[in-house]
Write a structure and sequence with these properties.
- The protein has eleven helices and ten strands.
- It folds into two domains: 176 residues, Rossmann fold (3-Layer(aba) Sandwich); 113 residues, Rossmann fold, CATH 3.40.50.
- The two termini are 35 Å apart.
- The radius of gyration is 19 Å and the shape is globular.
- The strands form two sheets. It has a six-stranded mixed beta sheet with strand order 1-2-10-7-8-9. Strands 5-4-3-6 form a four-stranded parallel beta sheet, with helices on both faces.
- By secondary structure, it is α/β, with parallel strands linked by helices.
- The longest helix has 17 residues.
- Helices cover 41% and strands 16% of the residues.
- Helix 1 packs across helix 2, helix 2 runs parallel beside helix 3 and helix 7 packs across helix 8.
- Strand 8, helix 9 and strand 9 form a beta-alpha-beta unit.
């Protein structure tokens, strides 16, 4: 193993493991890519680095600038981490009640980010209406747009429409192909920004045309993502998901409820020794069900983050 010049050089090249105990008796195999091995604990390190370095190359992000984004969790942490290493001030708008989900906020602040909490009533209203994590962030994204337009030396990451988000996961797909020796029959991933699913799907569909791509969405999400139907697209939401659907990169979308996502995450901890988060539970729940319906196939999924940021509250939002 060689010495790295910076911790950000450790982003990516995460390990892949086969699930053994949870798949006993099945005739197909389930493999999980462990994204919590990234330095700040989630797959969002990949997109944070890619978006920031592309903005630097384009001259949109320079020394002395502030990085802004709206995030309920992992993207905010990843931007705080990469921004800190590169010497930028990072401002994250978070819509979470003060007594819930404090782990993620504390991690961002310890990386040196400024975290501004939005009105708690916005979160409560969103929960009552079963609004997804993506929608919860809309007020924060509107503020990001306003700040970027009104103040100098500000760069908004635009995770939901930034092409660098997709490119980051083209690299994830290349890792999967190498680790699996190009033997992938099914790929399963939760749909948040859409970046993971689209970035991996672009490469897998090109290299393995018969590979099936399955998206996972919270059952509570009122914004149904339906194959064959247009998805709302504005400058603050839906850009990547809309393009992904237009290009027919996803074969199926499966909705998972909190109960099944949390129960499967707990099984990962106890049976496989993998302390992964709730979205990991949702992904594995779908992956195992797909494996049950198949013979002699390889089902690959992603474990996006660690379970340590769900100790206060367990809830499946993407």
């Amino acid at each position: 193993m060689r010495v790295r010049n910076s911790v950000i050089e450790l982003i990516g090249n995460t390990p892949m493991v086969m699930l053994n105990k949870m798949t006993q008796g099945l005739e197909s195999r389930v493999f999980a890519k462990l994204e919590f091995f990234n330095p700040s604990g989630s797959l969002k390190d990949r997109i944070a680095l890619e978006m920031i370095e592309q903005a630097e190359k384009d001259g949109k992000l320079k020394p002395g600038y502030t990085i802004v984004e709206s995030s309920t969790g992992n993207t905010g942490i990843a931007l705080s981490f990469v921004g800190n290493v590169k010497g930028y001030h990072v401002l994250i708008f978070e819509t979470m009640p003060k007594k819930i989900g404090t782990e993620r906020r504390e991690i961002m602040e310890r990386y040196g980010a400024e975290v501004r909490l939005l009105d708690n009533s916005a979160f409560a209203s969103a929960r009552e209406k079963s609004i997804s994590g993506a929608e919860i962030e809309l007020p924060g994204r509107a503020l990001c747009r306003e700040i970027e337009k009104s103040k100098p030396k500000v760069w908004w990451a635009r995770q939901f429409s930034n092409p660098a988000n997709i490119r980051a996961h083209n690299k994830t797909a290349a890792e999967i192909l190498e680790q699996m020796n190009s033997k992938v029959n099914v790929f399963v991933a939760a749909i948040g920004t859409g970046g993971t699913l689209m970035g991996v799907a672009e490469v897998l569909k090109r290299e393995i045309p018969k590979a099936e791509i399955i998206g996972v969405q919270p059952e509570s999400d009122r914004n149904l993502i339906v194959i064959g139907k247009p998805y709302p697209k504005t400058d603050i939401s839906g850009g990547i998901i809309s393009e992904m659907l237009e290009r027919n990169l996803v074969d199926k979308i499966i909705r998972v409820n909190d109960r099944d996502a949390i129960a499967t995450a707990h099984r990962l901890w106890k049976e496989e020794g993998l302390f992964a988060g709730v979205s990991s539970g949702a992904n594995v729940f779908v992956a195992i069900n797909e494996a049950k319906a198949r013979k002699g196939e390889n089902v690959v999924t992603i474990l996006p983050d660690s379970g340590d940021r769900y100790l206060t509250e367990e809830h499946f939002i993407t």
